[in-house]
Amino acid sequence: MANYKAYPEYKDSGVEWLGLVPESWTICRLKNLAAIKNGQDYKSVQTDDGYPVMGSGGQFTFASKFMYDKPSVLLGRKGTIDKPLYINEPFWTVDTMYYTELNEGFDARYLYYLALTIQFSRYSTNTALPSMTQEHLSNYKFSVPKAESERKKITKFLDHETAKIDNLIEKQQQLIELLKEKRHAVISHAVTKGLNPDVPMKDSGVEWLGEVPEHWTISTLKHHAKFIDGDRGSEYPNDNDLVDDGVVFLSSKNISNWEINIDDANYISREKFNRLNRGKAINGDVIVKVRGSTGRIGELAIFETERLNKSTAFINAQMMIIRLKNSFNNRFLCNVAQGHYWMEQLNVGAYGTAQQQLNNAIFSGMIMVVPPIDEQLTINKFLELEIKRFDGLIKNTSNMIQLIQERRTALISAAVTGKIDVRDWVAPDTQEAEEPQEVSA
């Protein structure tokens, strides 16, 4: 905040989290600025169109009538309590939210910025389901300028500056999506076209696949693997069978970013494991998610005994083992799964409405473009470097977004607690405000 000046004089606020505040400001409680009201269940007024129904994540449906028709700040009562919302149109809000009726002369937009500085962790009354009482919110203390004109200037300043910051964040988020698309395209091209641009090509006979290298074969996955479900019989482990140490009991949560992570894995005893017939992983097996929410199924990873320091594992009912023959490298299959033609086939084959599912027949019939094994290994090496490069760029951009968001939070806090003086601030011209400097990855 070095670019902004401080107020000429400060005083001790007497409030731990406020510290020193401008001499001319006053300390007041939220209840002195606005009345806090309870939301209500929306089901009796739900409709296909009408007034927005607001939850902690924003609007999610419509209501036939409104609860309040003036600008307001919404605050969480249960669940997500640390994400205040501002709304300036007639609305309905749910029974897990509070809404505010502002005192005359106090702007809802300014209260919104104040609410963003509330230290919700001090007052959350339940760790399992965070909640805020009306009493705690009503008595929360803020430091506020006495002059309405000063509050309006701070609001105008923050509206302008946060809009610029949000623009930067949006550009970085767009960059991440472009990097993900490019990563996806590079993988898809490598596993369907190869690395040699001059290699003779042939028609694959598959409309969505197009041409493939002439010396590659096209077959179904069943010619290169066998598929092993977990043992779902009477010996299938339940909660009482879980132990602190033993054989890893893998579930979908243990596969993320195309790797197996057992930091939070469950375990079953060796004796229990020995009584099970199927679903036992060995080194090099590919473990795939076959049940779950859309976008998660079909994700897979290699069970690597040396990396995990585990000789075997048992898979749960949401997973399947793909045990490959020598004609198909397991790392190459993982690369194929990150390309477009793997997910396109799975999306066509997946069934189930509440929860998407895959089965052996779907995987068995999946069309595979298969290079010679030595070429698979060469493509693996190429993609290892490319994936690392893209993931690094994505991580750097994500870190940039986090830094920008932290600056946004700090700027809001500094302005509404009087750490910076913006009374003389003048908005730049419109063009400058609409064309903020881009942040490159």
TrEMBL record:
InterPro entries documented for this protein: Restrct_endonuc_typeI_TRD, Restrct_endonuc_typeI_TRD_sf, Type-I_RS_S_subunit
GO biological process: DNA restriction-modification system
Sorted UniProt keywords: DNA-binding, Restriction system
Keyword Secreted on entry: no
CDD domains according to UniProt: RMtype1_S_LlaAI06ORF1089P_TRD1-CR1_like
Xref: Pfam families: Methylase_S
MF (Gene Ontology): DNA binding
Domain Type I restriction modification DNA specificity, residue spans: 22-176, 247-399
Family stated for the protein in its record: Belongs to the type-I restriction system S methylase family.
PANTHER family, sorted: TYPE I RESTRICTION ENZYME MJAVIII SPECIFICITY SUBUNIT, TYPE-1 RESTRICTION ENZYME ECOKI SPECIFICITY PROTEIN
Protein name per its UniProtKB record: Restriction modification system DNA specificity domain protein
Taxonomic source organism: Edwardsiella ictaluri (strain 93-146)
